[in-house]
Write a structure and sequence with these properties.
single chain, mainly alpha, extended, unfolded protein binding, LTXXQ
Length: 181
């Protein structure tokens, strides 16, 4: 083999070797939800209260009602996602173009920016209302005692999450990491 072929082989093999070494160095963090993983890591513990409803002592009828509500919501979400995909893409592209036009203009147009931001906020508000409606339907299945029990579980989960995010000295963990650097 001549020198140019050897050089090409080394050039191709070197990135592969480094990529393999870094994946071995990361270990199984991705499987266990470590840094960069999608598993059930620390973020999963503090991710909200969605699973708390199933820690309640639900009757079989309540479990069935919740299952039905989930399946109906899932079907609605799937139908909405598939409906007018091209139109949604066009709307996003138009919104991006409008934002770029506002940002790249020679002089900033505050009124146009406020109007654009207001439209985005109203879309977000609509999504929040739909989410609250879905949660209301789920909580309407519960009895008053179960709702109180849920609130207690929610408070406990929030306290656990806060404790987990703080270090031994009471400082938040991300501050500790920044101080260590």
């Amino acid at each position: 083999m001549n020198l140019s072929k050897k050089l090409m082989m080394v050039t191709l093999a070197l990135p592969l070797a480094f990529g393999t070494a870094s994946s071995f160095a990361a270990g199984d963090q991705h499987e266990r939800g470590g840094k960069g993983g999608r598993g059930h890591g620390e973020h999963q513990v503090c991710s909200g209260t969605a699973g708390l409803i199933y820690k309640l002592d639900l009757s079989d009828a309540q479990k069935e009602q919740l299952k039905e509500l989930r399946s109906v919501r899932h079907a609605q979400a799937k139908a909405n996602a598939e409906k007018d995909i091209e139109q949604k893409r066009a709307d996003r592209a138009q919104a991006h173009a409008t934002m770029q036009k506002i940002v790249m203009a020679d002089k900033f147009d505050t009124a146009a920016a406020k109007q654009f931001a207001g439209g985005m906020a109203s879309k977000r508000a609509e999504r929040n209302v739909m989410k609250m409606e879905a949660e209301h339907e789920m909580f309407s299945v519960l009895t008053a005692a179960q709702k109180e029990q849920f609130l207690e579980l929610q408070k406990t989960a929030g306290d656990d999450c806060k404790a987990k995010k703080k270090g031994k000295d009471g400082k938040r963990r991300h501050h500790e990491k920044a101080e260590q650097k």
